[in-house]
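Input/output pair, single chain:
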Amino acid sequence: MTVRTYGLMGVDWEERINFDRLRRERLARAKQHLQESEMGALLCFDMNNIRYITATHIGTWAVDKLNRFCLLPQNDKPIMWDFGSAARHHELYCPWLGEGRSRAGISTLRGAMLPQSGRAEDVARKIRIELEERGLLGEPLGVDVIELPVLFALQKEGIEVVDGQQLMQNVRIIKTEDEITLLSTACMMVDAAYEELYRTMRPGIKESECVGIVSKLLHDLGSEQVEGVNAISGERCNPHPHVYTDRVLRPGDPAYFDIIHSFNGYRTCYYRTFAVGSASHALVDAYARCRDYLDASIDMIKPGITTAEVVEKWPKAEEFGFPDEEACFALQYGHGVGLSVWEKPVFSRLVSLDHPEVIEEGMVFALETFWPAADGWSAARIEEQLVVTADGCEIITRFPAEKLMVAGSRYYTATGPLPTTRETESHLNRSAEGNRQAAVAASARAEGANAPT
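Output:
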């Protein structure tokens, strides 16, 4: 299997992403899992689940409002209640929904509507009517996420509410052919963003400027949403703060980035680490260690192995300076990627050793590793997205990451180019060779007998 990446628009002369097939296959998976469950119907407020089931979308501004909702009854088509005029728009432009299936309906706007307005009760009444008409009122209703007033109103209508979130996670864990193509296309766009970032990054540029460069290029290419760009540099690299600032990049800095965006709803989670101008030996060593852990886990991926087997290749929390697995959660990590950035399966020593998940063909997930450098402040972070194939996996994140890359200006001295591997701690009262030897010795001590195999 080779994952193909096409152009960014549809054409009549080449079969690319087949959106009709995408809609049919997603809905079919949801209906099949619902049929196999105890639930009489599934009620969704999560915009990603709504999109999966109904193929409707009204902009990323609405993603956290919980004001739209859809109902998927057993052996029936979904019903969509949408934000004001969006319902009329879907009647006109979303014929796959069917006549009368796109309706106006508003929840509480995360509590912004006064409780006395009765919006929660109105939602519950709408759902009760549909369940009653189909003889499903006595069956459990699966719900993915919900506001408490709506939950209470549903219960007051005599509806038994159960967890529908797990059902939708299981529906979405295996990707269709078109979902995989969309995910690969989203990664292609980040390949281009890293190329632009590599060419632009230099001492004097701020983390926030790097975020702006990436965001503009992705939007120019057709990104639907730049959900986040983690831009972390210098002493901020260790420990990982998970948020960018206005810090200015300096010569010799480590800098790592996570680019999270979506193309037609399908997301990326894609880390790369660079050195700015030059790299210390400590950072080079940390990067090699980080890459070794990542490669060891990727080499294992194929259908039938478990998440527990993968995370056993990763270091324990205590080996890189944390008291337990919860304290270092997501530094050595893996997670499904699809319409949202964290889906099943999850790879973490916190949960996977005791509760393993079996890897299957058609899963798409990201694996990411981290390693702190022996200098005490720099660190490396790398992540790859991959598709599980019949006999292994295919990596769909293609910007080079086999070895640490140095970005920024090439400096020249009177005798030739300045080395790109050099110590930045020139303020210390010892030679560069002394710095190198100290870093190597500290790194060797940290590795001990726990280096990956």
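The radius of gyration is 25 Å. The first helix runs from residue 19 to 35.
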